[in-house]
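Journal club prep — side note

Before the paper discussion, L.F. wants everyone to see what a predicted structure for a comparable chain looks like in token form. Sequence:
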Amino acid sequence: MVAKFDSVNREILIEAIKERDKGGSGGKVHKVAKRNSKQGKGRRKVERKILDRKRGETKMFTKLDTFHTAIGGSE
């Protein structure tokens, strides 16, 4: 399919795909937490887990993970 495009369009497509895949982990924690709270697993508990993760106190996550969450959490 890509072979039909001329080289300019192909470059644009490649750049667009790179941009799309760049995403990272930003905001995913929040989406999961929201879904969990709707499933009756205890909203307060889930929210505390997010706060702990942002402060880096939860031992499950690495420091790098915490850093990325704190930076990209709002996206």
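L.F.'s comment for the group: The helical segments are 7-21, 28-38, 43-55, 63-72. Keep this in mind when we get to the figures.
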